[in-house]
Design a protein that fits this description.
The chain has about 450 residues and is α/β, with parallel strands linked by helices. It contains 18 helices and 15 strands. It has a domain of about 250 residues: Rossmann fold (3-Layer(aba) Sandwich), CATH 3.40.50. Helix 12 links the parallel strand 10 and strand 11. The chain starts with 6 loop residues before the first strand and ends in a 10-residue tail after the last helix.
């Protein structure tokens, strides 16, 4: 048996003091979001109806680092720093010379990386005198995180949960309600946006976002919180990558490739952006579902962040803002767009995007669980699929390769998905050419071309 360490741990005083802001490091000239009313660059005034000024300032900041408020760092102490593991048993199972490490965010109270930004957003809203937050959630990880964070700072929380995940993951809903949140199945009868999409009963993140934004924009004392995509959300997640840099130094190793799953981009950015800031030639791989292949098949264009067209338009790879993905079990990855900063890096060739079908990701998840013990959520199972590809390539080339990936959450509430895979009933939907052509037709009129 190996005498090498398995866990690399940091003390609480090594929780980062600042978030890493990569906006100034991105390739090319920055492209602004556009107002949905005028198609002109959006300013703070376009955001004040749903966000507090502190988060708007973070959204547009060009400072290389942003200080983490002490109250947020104090809340982080409940679970941070999170552990870095060396996957010795997976390495042996794969018979690879690669050295595999994973940063595990499943130790947070909500079981994923999402509280890193939920706590920061809830605190900023509480400081601004806001009494309630609305949001969307796909698989329920973000909704759970925000319900937990609102409870910490005395806020009410209202969550619109994508219909397919509401049905597939009832215990995520139970978690949210345990922390005091109100949860609606989306599309719902609660909003005009929900009623207008009743023909899509499985729902989508775009529809759920529209419902949550509608409530926040039309109700005094209520703001909206987004779990991914926007700059301030990605900013908050960079505690992950900063800790991983210190932990890889403890391990005496340096990654050749950093891998994360991508839905809206916050998990991937949280791990990868600090490594980009650090410099070097590390490869970055973003793994997404073949059923919702935003980065690998999408069109680079200005598009709405939600289905109803209530949000500013963002420059990103998109499948069309009213695209409703198949009800795959990786609910957190069922989003038509992606973070503009991640899209810019993909477009510049700095990040490689790969898409995987549902069955091959669950095959990877089982191989990981049966060697390392942790049952991964369906979302990071996509990253594990890419890890296995990299490990196999290292074996075939007969070369050592150091792989770091983000295990952003556990799958303890996703066992219905594992049941479907183990019974052979899991489907493999993919994004077709007809859907791609339809996405072109759905792009907003009047927005400048990015072709």
């Amino acid at each position: 048996m190996s005498a090498e360490p398995t866990k690399f741990l940091l003390p609480e005083d090594r929780i980062p003091t600042h978030w890493v802001n990569l906006l100034t490091d991105l390739p090319g000239d920055p492209l602004p979001p556009l107002s949905p009313q005028t198609m002109e660059p959006a300013g703070p005034g376009d955001l004040t109806a749903i966000f507090p000024m502190a988060l708007i300032e973070q959204e547009v900041s060009t400072a290389p680092e942003v200080e983490i408020p002490e109250a947020v760092r104090d809340a982080y102490r409940l679970w941070r720093p999170t552990p870095l593991y060396r996957a010795h048993r997976l390495e042996r199972a794969l018979e690879t010379p690669a050295r595999i490490y994973y940063k595990y965010e499943g130790v947070s109270p909500a079981g994923s990386h999402k509280p890193n930004t939920a706590v920061a957003q809830a605190w900023a809203n509480a400081q601004a005198g806001i009494g309630k937050l609305t949001t969307e959630t796909g698989a329920g990880q973000w909704g759970s995180a925000l319900a937990f964070a609102c409870r910490l700072f005395g806020l009410e929380c209202e969550v619109f949960m994508v219909g397919s995940s509401y049905d597939q993951k009832p215990y995520r809903r139970s978690m949210m309600e345990t922390w005091g949140a109100t949860v609606h199945r989306s599309p719902s009868e609660e909003t005009q946006s929900g009623r207008a999409n009743a023909a899509h009963p499985t729902g989508s993140l775009g529809i759920a976002i529209s419902e949550a934004v509608e409530v926040a924009a039309t109700t005094d004392g209520v703001n909206y919180a987004l779990g991914s995509v926007l700059n301030h959300v990605l900013l908050h997640q960079t505690v992950i990558g900063q800790e991983s840099i210190a932990q890889m130094e403890l391990a005496g190793d340096e990654p050749d490739v950093v891998i994360g799953c991508v839905g809206g981009g916050s998990n991937f950015a949280g791990l990868a952006f600090p490594w980009l800031r650090r410099g070097g030639n590390v490869r970055l791989v973003a793994a997404e579902p073949a059923a919702c292949p935003t980065l690998t098949r999408g069109i680079y264009a200005y598009d709405f962040g939600d289905t109803a067209g209530l949000t500013p338009l963002m420059p990103m790879y998109t499948l069309g803002h009213d695209f409703v993905p198949p009800p795959v079990h990786a609910g957190g990855l069922r989003y038509h767009g992606d973070a503009p900063s991640v899209c810019a890096l993909v477009r510049a060739g700095r990040v490689e995007a790969r898409a995987y079908r549902q069955n091959e990701t669950f095959d990877a998840a089982l191989r990981f669980a049966r060697s390392e013990g942790i049952i991964p959520a369906p979302e990071p199972a996509h990253a594990i699929r890419a890890v296995i590809e990299e490990a196999d390539a290292a074996r075939e080339a007969g070369e050592p390769r150091v792989i770091l990936f983000g295990l952003c959450g556990h799958g303890n509430f996703d066992l219905a998905a594992y049941d479907a895979y183990l019974s052979g009933s899991l489907e493999d939907p993919e994004f077709g050419e007809d859907e791609l052509r339809a996405a072109l037709d759905r792009l907003p009129e009047g927005a400048p071309s990015l072709a």
